[in-house]
Amino acid sequence: MLDSDPRVPVAALQRFGTAAMQAIGCDAAIAAEISDHLVDADLCGVYSHGIFRLDWYAERFAQGRFNPQAQPVLRQAEGGGALIDGGNNLGMPAFRLATDYLIEHARAHGVAAVGVANVDHTGRVGAYVQRGAEAGCLTILFGGGARKDWRQVAPYGGARGMLPTNPFAFGIPGGDMGPVVSDFATGMASGGKVYAAKMAGRPLTAGLCIDAQGHPTTEPDDYFNGGAILPMAGPKGYGMALVAELLGEAILGQCMDGLNWICIGLDLSRFRGPSAYRRAAEECLAELRACPPAPGFDRVEVPGEREARLRTERLVSGIPIPPKTLESLRALGIRLGIGDRDLVH
Q1: How far is CA 10 from the centre of its chain?
Q2: Which portions of the chain are predicted below pLDDT 50?
Q3: Which of 247, 195, 176 shows the shortest CA–CA distance to 57?
Q4: Which of 138, 137, 141, 184 is nearest to 165 (CA)?
Q5: Which CATH code of 3.30.420.40, 3.30.1370.60, 3.10.20.30, 3.30.870.10 fits the domain covering 7-284+316-343?
Q6: How far is CA 133 from the centre of its chain?
Q7: Quick one: which H or E segment has residue 241?
Q8: pLDDT for 46-101, tens place per residue?
Q9: What is the value of pTM for the model shown?
Q10: φ, ψ (nearest 5 deg) of residue 117
């Protein structure tokens, strides 16, 4: 996104998103939850998981890829562990329930784990680990197990997509500026980043993708025509993706369409009092922020703080949306019969 792109008020995007999700079958509460989640991703600058996803969700619903009426439920996994079954709906409601479980059980027992299965797209998983971190827990999520449906990322040294982007997210209580949140795909980019570039009519950054012949490309269409995303940091990203893939399928079984997820929470107060921890964390983080910036950078930032800063700014200024993406959303509103007047900037 560019600062010169049209800006749309947050409330307008939330209303539009809620209406769109209701139009494809979600009840009012879940529709609002999904819409708020997408808009929050745009507020944070994580456009790959933002409001543009509505068009993709509508397409997937039309193909029967998820059940918008399903409600998540907590049940036992085969071996007796806790498992959130998303009913093959979008993953936001399931992860709300999973995060509730982690916080409650980590506080009661020191550590907690829960699986999440039978979910479609889950949105920005950094939002869930942030919530756990705000409750005082080290929170870790990672997903995999869907390589038979999502061959997106080439293994290190490979020229063809074989694995999903298998994301990891870590949230830990921070210092004076809130939690430290790190959320990343194990590919050089998420699939959503490629899709967002295509919708916006803009090229990819060099070094993210290869075409069907294994050659580097910056054209989003090359990815959709048999290309692949490269693994993050070469063998390191490939190794992390493989761990997530093995656990996602071997532990939780074959995915329905999205990923299977492992979620872990650790109550840090079992090791040190929150106030002492916060002082120590802030000392560490302040040293990093004070590092002189390299050429081309304004400052050194701590993971999660940029998103918080952008959220504060855009709640006032609105969210920049590329013109082509805005046109696509307006066309979606017309197709769904909900209108597009909220998207006039």
Answers
A1: 19
A2: none
A3: 195
A4: 184
A5: 3.30.1370.60
A6: 16
A7: helix 235-250
A8: 999 999 999 999 999 999 999 999 999 999 998 999 999 999 999 999 999 999 99
A9: 0.92
A10: -135, 165
